[in-house]
Design goal:
By secondary structure, the protein is mainly alpha-helical. The chain has one domain. Helices cover 83% and strands 0% of the residues. It contains two helices and no strands. Helix 1 runs antiparallel to helix 2. The longest helix is centred in the first third of the chain and has 29 residues. The radius of gyration is 15 Å and the shape is elongated.
Length: 65
């Protein structure tokens, strides 16, 4: 069962990286037409969602003590 948890943790980590890459490459430039606060909010939103995905990945990863 721990092997499945390790795979799930790595997949969630990969999903966090992929989301950050795709959002950073495509979504944030869409908001570039906005004012500076709009850009900052768009980048912060992408960062928060990627951080949440990363925390899910680290919570599912097995403890290696």
């Amino acid at each position: 069962m721990s092997a499945l948890r390790a795979i799930a943790g790595r997949l969630a980590g990969a999903a966090a990286f992929l989301f950050a890459f795709i959002a950073g490459s495509f979504v944030v430039p869409l908001f570039a037409r906005w004012s500076v606060p709009g850009r900052v909010m768009a980048i912060a939103l992408v960062a928060v969602v990627a951080l949440v995905l990363w925390r899910i990945a680290s919570a599912r990863a097995p403890d290696e003590a």
